[in-house]
Design goal:
With 618 residues, the chain is mainly α. It has a domain of 260 residues. 74% of the residues lie in helices and 0% in strands. Helix 12 runs parallel beside helix 17 and helix 17 packs antiparallel against helix 19. The longest helix has 35 residues. About 6% of the residues have low confidence. Keywords: Membrane, Transmembrane, Transmembrane helix. This is PGG domain-containing protein. InterPro entries: PGG_dom.
């Protein structure tokens, strides 16, 4: 006989299943927001640039060049880009609306309208990209094949997703979905903007027999390099979109088949495409490209060593109890205990303390995982953009022994440009390394992630100092500001930290840590780009008034305003980097937060950001 409680439970209606759209609503909002951002910017800065002068009966200054040269391509780009922008806004509204309904009624309405708009958004973005980036037959054919294949795949995937029942919410796969969607989001926005504005810029005039206005400068000077850049960038763009489309299937990470690994493969292809586009678009000579590829190869070799060689060696040592390997393991264990000052009588107590300490560090790293991933992704984004649009801009002509499309800073100050380029490349590769390391718990225990993040941050600092300054003294001042921030934090912690013994503040400390780290990441991203590309841009050529190509225009016209902008922006950037360095280390951020040293740095960075905005925009 069934119990009354059992009858009541049998009569209760089944709980509504939570779809992955609701679980990942924050990341879908981020995706839609970034797509709307890049589509909005592309609408005002169309591929090929705008006319710089007015010719009666031909064109008007400010009009898109591509509209006069290829009206069909322009119309396809314009309407696809506008559709992507409007669809992104509609996705944002639908997600917010469905989330409110779910929270109020504890039920998630049908997500088919949301999925339809998302597919329309992605397809429109692909159409705009194809129309705006195709330059020759090779890139046109390659892009057309990829876009057509993805279009058919997305259509088939949408039909299959509508026929299958929605999958149950799986907490285990939630993190994987978030990571994949976050990486695909930034890769999509980054490659879309890079494809529409190719490195080296566009010709602003037409010379018979040489080039036409609106064509990429690299197409005439470095055609093979431009083709390689577009092919790699297109591959990364399509792979990232395919990843998002694959996520429309709610069962793809749970079926246990080979198809469940498809999103991971797409992300790997997207990252490889980004590296190829970086190597092809940021350099103009072969040996520099070789150096970038060698740097990437060294990182991949390091990852392979940590993932394949080290675990197997450790397992072999642990499984071997006799013989030379067993003796080596015991010797290594005894040396490790001596190195940390452990005594034989206190072995059990010390081992337990070590286990507790490692568990605490793992929990701290787990809590900061998402923010570290955000930092690495944003760092990869800004370094990729900085390499394709270096400080000082590009030459627009072939006078004076240089070629159009080459970086101005490379001609005027080659040492400074090389320092910027290699520091920026190191930060870019270290960011990709951190993105990989943050997913592997075994590598986290070996402090490989901390090393990668420190290398990333110091690479950003070096690239900023080399790219934002034009003389040695200013570079010294920039590094001195960074040193002063770190010295201040150390002094503040030493003299003003109280002895906090309670564990009740751990939750509060973690919340403050996340807020500080998020602010520092966003501040560093903004100020890095602003420092390398200051307001009003750069002079494009030398003139009779004493202006030199590559120098900031604001510095020539308003030197005091430029200095105020530069030092305020530098203070904010360096304080943000110092905050990140301290906050990613679990042993440093606790006393620094408890003594309010990091809060002081945050306030200083905020005032620096406001000062830079006031000086640079007014």
């Amino acid at each position: 006989m069934a119990s009354p409680a059992g009858e009541i439970n049998q009569q209760q209606p089944p709980q509504p299943q939570t779809t992955w759209e609701y679980t990942l609503r924050k990341y879908l909002l981020l995706l839609a927001s970034l797509v709307a951002t890049v589509a909005y910017a592309a609408g005002f800065s169309p591929p090929g640039g705008v006319w710089q002068d007015t010719v009666a009966g031909d064109h008007t200054a400010g009009d898109p060049i591509i509209r006069d040269l290829n009206r069909v391509r322009y119309l396809v780009f314009f309407y696809c880009n506008a559709t992507a922008f409007a669809s992104s806004l509609l996705v944002i509204v639908l997600i917010l609306l469905f989330a409110v309904i779910h929270e109020k009624r504890n039920a998630w309405v049908t997500v088919m309208p949301l999925r339809v708009v998302m597919v329309l958004d992605l397809l429109s973005l692909m159409g705009a990209y194809a129309a705006g980036t195709c330059r020759d037959r090779a890139t046109t054919a390659y892009t057309a094949v990829l876009v057509s294949a993805v279009f058919l795949y997305v259509f088939a995937q949408m039909v299959l997703a509508s026929l299958r029942p929605a999958g149950e919410h799986d907490v285990t796969n939630e993190r994987a979905r978030k990571v994949i969607l976050l990486l695909a989001t930034f890769a999509t926005s980054l490659t879309y903007a890079a494809g529409l504005s190719t490195p080296g810029g566009f010709w602003s005039d037409t010379i018979a027999g040489q080039h036409r206005a609106g064509e990429a400068v690299m197409a005439e000077r470095h055609p093979a390099r431009l083709t390689a850049f577009l092919l790699c960038n297109t591959t990364a763009f399509v792979a990232s979109l395919l990843t998002v489309a694959r996520l429309l299937d709610s069962n793809h990470l749970r079926d246990g088949t080979a198809w469940s690994w498809e999103p991971y493969g797409c992300i790997v292809v997207a990252m490889a495409g980004l590296v190829g586009a970086y190597a092809a678009g940021s350099t103009r000579v072969e040996h520099t490209t070789v150096n970038v590829v060698a740097l990437v190869g060294a990182v991949l070799a390091y990852i392979a060593f940590q993932v394949i060689v080290v675990p197997r060696a450790v397992n072999a040592l642990r499984s071997t109890t006799d013989g030379s390997w067993g003796k080596l393991a015991r010797i290594y264990s005894s040396l490790s205990k001596r190195r940390f000052g452990r005594k034989q009588l206190e072995q059990e107590h010390d081992d337990q303390d070590t286990i507790n300490r490692e568990a605490e560090l793992n929990r701290a790293m787990e809590k900061a995982r998402s923010l570290v991933l955000l930092l690495a992704t944003l760092a990869a984004t800004i370094t990729f953009q900085a390499a394709l649009d270096p400080p000082g801009g590009y030459w627009q002509d072939d006078n004076g022994g240089h070629q159009a499309g080459d970086p101005i800073l490379l001609t005027t100050n080659p040492r400074r440009y090389k320092a910027f380029f290699y520091c920026n490349s190191t930060a870019f590769v270290a960011s990709l390394l951190a993105i990989i390391l943050v997913q592997n718990k075994s590598l986290l225990k070996r402090h490989a992630l901390e090393a990668a993040m420190i290398l990333d941050l110091f690479g950003l600092m070096g690239a900023y100092a080399a790219g934002s300054c034009r003389d040695v003294s200013t570079s010294i001042y920039v590094m001195a500001i960074a040193g002063a921030v770190l010295v201040y934090v150390v002094i503040h912690v030493v003299f003003f930290t109280l002895d906090h013994k309670g564990h009740g503040e751990d939750v509060l400390l973690e919340k403050r840590r996340k807020r500080l780290l998020l602010f520092a990441i966003l501040s560093a991203t903004i100020t890095y780009q602003a420092g390398l590309t200051p307001p009003s841009g750069f002079w494009q050529e030398d003139d009779d008034y004493g202006h030199r190509a590559g120098e900031p225009v604001l510095f020539s016209n308003y030197p005091h305003r430029y200095k105020a902008f530069f030092y305020c922006n530098t203070t904010s950037f360096m304080s943000s980097i110092a905050l990140i360095i301290l906050l990613v280390n679990p042993n440093l951020y606790r006393p620094a937060i408890q003594s309010y040293a990091l809060s002081v740095c945050m306030v200083a960075g905020m005032f620096g950001l406001m000062g830079a905005y006031s000086a640079g925009s007014s």
